[in-house]
Amino acid sequence: MAENNLPRAASEMQLQAWITRVVRHDQAAFEALYDACVGRIYGLALRITRNAALAEEVTEDALWQVWREAPRFDATRGTAMAWILTIARSRALDGLRARDPAELMEDVTTLPEAARTSDAGPLDLLSAVQSDHALHDALARLDARS
Fold this sequence. Notes:
The chain is mostly helical.
């Protein structure tokens, strides 16, 4: 693990090797691929959807699609991460299309400030949402005083 408990970026060769093994339904390879990509996928999904719950759903859907469609990955057409993030982008846009526009506007205002800034990167978004969830969890555990 790198600093801040974030996984180190995997090399293109490693990502491709894991995808090759996922084609053979190697669960250990999928777990490694998941660990290497989940933060970037979630960050992209959150940036597009501006909704933490929807971003989690998009991340799950995108990774499920990576599992199912691993045989379709073609290294001659682009990098493994680009392929994975393209899947995530498509799932995020599908998720937005399925949502009520009024509900989406409410969601944008409930994101932490750091997640609403235009220069926030995927890891910044992930960190902001995790901090916000931790704060809400801590507040929920406090006893109410009369």
